[in-house]
Design goal:
By secondary structure, the chain is α+β, with helices and mostly antiparallel strands. The protein contains 13 helices and 14 strands.
């Protein structure tokens, strides 16, 4: 499983906090630098004006060297970091009091200087730095007047290249270092608080995912394909998978309910029909006997009574089959497992059915391996299962046909098979042969459709699977495998206990 949702949320919040801290730190540093520049410019705005009033730096002959030397002495005494430039009327640099090796500029843009002089309240105003062509700095400037006209400018730049950069200012500023430490601590505390809050807030989501996962394992035994999520999935993705699995399960159950409802209606219709037919015949013959008792010959009366008896027996068999299937499907019948000789049971059943097979003109044979070990199961239920299979084969095998009842040991257990050369089953009928009251379209001598349903339920109680193979007008083969008593009876008993409690 990937990172939990609360961990992902915490990491996202942490990343956002770090990014926000970096952005705010950079913004604060820029604001601090801007504020420092504004303060420096406001404090030193009148420096150039004061100097030009005290000293005459330019005259008709050009630069006044003694005045310039006096200015240099004063500047070095008051603010050694200030750079003082004497500019011509067009902005060319005439002199500088702190000579540099290779000035980056030979002239200064006069636009910022004019804005500085025209708007005293608009601070800070950045001007060209003669020492760095890529940088602008705060400054103080004043015009040098001669006969009421400007002949040049005194240009004083503050915070020269020797001043600290932003990063150096952070390193050298104790206040900024404290602020940085506090910001890191705030981020860490916020990260821890966010992790705790997200963990608590997503706890119900994790519990819901755990409960749905337990439900999915309980209902399906293993995760369905719909519930599978990527390896890096969080609770939301897992819940999405569980929801798809639950939706698929509910959809399947709805389809099963619809199918069961259809089967219920068909069951009621089939039971009504199967009960009504012999009951009507029984009632008709009995009423005939009662109404014409005095006039009926003895032979005719006996014939009517025998027909009524056959219909009564048919009703009895149908009702008995209904009750038997109902008990098997409701879990009332619990198999009584024991070791028994399956080969002897097959021979006994074949012996009982052989006379009926001869009357129908069908050859009933057995093929039993005498070395077959003991089987493990409920003898009575297995006997009932084989009787129903043989009865079904006799019903659908015409005269001259053949039925074989075989037993052969295999690695998986004892394989029992019933083969016939009967009418076979159409492909569209194969999936429904073992359904209740399903007799198939166009099949002759079809019974009530309960015998094979009973066979399937008995097989389920023994943990066995029925294998049906059939070819129309060629024959049908039904086989199943029972466990051997010496090796698999424990596993079979467990499988039966699980199957007995399963809703049909």
């Amino acid at each position: 499983m990937g990172l939990r949702l609360h961990i992902r949320l915490t990491l996202v919040i942490g990343a956002l906090l770090v990014a926000l801290t970096i952005v705010l730190g950079a913004a604060i540093a820029q604001i601090a630098q801007h504020y420092q520049a504004e303060v420096s410019q406001r404090l030193n705005a009148g420096v150039a004006m004061y100097v030009t009033r005290e000293l005459s730096l330019l005259n008709e002959r050009g630069v006044n060297a003694p005045a310039l030397q006096e200015l240099a002495r004063r500047v070095m005494t008051v603010n050694p970091s200030a750079e003082v430039y004497l500019l011509a009327e067009d902005g060319r640099i005439l002199e500088t009091l702190q000579p540099r090796e290779g000035l980056a500029r030979r002239a200064v843009d006069l636009g910022p200087i004019r804005r500085f002089l025209a708007s005293p309240d608009d601070r800070p105003v950045y001007g060209d730095d003669p020492g760095d062509a890529r940088r602008q700095r705060v400054f103080s400037a004043a015009p040098i007047m001669l006969d009421a006209r400007p002949i040049g400018y005194l240009y004083v730049v503050f915070a020269s290249g020797r001043a600290a950069s932003v990063a150096a200012a952070v390193r050298n500023s104790y206040s900024l270092q404290i602020g940085l430490v506090l910001a890191v601590m705030i981020v860490l505390v916020t990260f821890i608080v966010a992790a705790t809050l997200f963990s608590r807030l997503t706890l119900p989501l994790r519990r819901l995912e755990s409960e749905m996962s337990a439900w999915d394992r309980k209902t399906s035994g293993e995760p369905r394909d719909e519930a599978r999520a990527p390896a890096d999935a969080d609770e939301i993705a897992l819940l999405q998978g569980r929801f798809r699995s639950m939706a698929a399960s509910i959809e399947s159950q709805l389809q099963q309910l619809k199918a069961q409802d259809t089967q219920r209606r068909d069951l009621v219709a089939s039971v009504s029909h199967d009960l009504r037919t012999p009951l009507a015949a029984l009632r008709g013959y009995l009423e005939t006997v009662l109404l014409k008792e005095a006039s009926l010959p003895d032979a005719t009366r006996r014939h009517y009574l025998e027909v009524a008896q056959r219909h009564a027996q048919q009703l009895e068999r149908l009702i008995a089959a209904l009750f038997e299937l109902s008990k098997l499907e409701s879990g009332v019948v619990t198999p009584s497992f024991e070791a028994f000789a399956l080969s002897e049971l097959l021979q006994d059943i074949a012996l009982r059915f052989r006379l009926r097979a001869q009357q129908l003109g069908v050859d009933l044979v057995t093929s039993v391996d005498p070395r077959a070990p003991l089987a493990y199961g409920d003898v009575a239920l297995i006997e009932r299962m084989l009787e129903n299979l043989l009865d079904n084969s006799l019903q659908h095998t015409p005269a001259g046909g053949r039925i074989e009842l075989s037993l052969a040991p295999e690695d998986a257990g004892l394989r029992v098979a019933v083969d016939d050369t009967g009418l076979g089953i159409e492909p569209q009928d194969l999936p429904h042969v073992f359904d209740r009251f399903y007799t198939g379209a166009g099949r002759q001598h079809a019974g009530n459709g309960l015998g094979l349903a009973i066979v399937r339920r008995i097989a389920e109680l023994h943990g066995a699977s029925l294998v049906l193979k059939s070819t129309p007008r060629v024959g049908t083969r039904v086989e199943f495998t029972l466990p051997v008593a010496a090796s698999a009876h424990v596993q079979t008993a467990r499988a039966t206990q699980s199957t007995a409690h399963r809703t049909p």
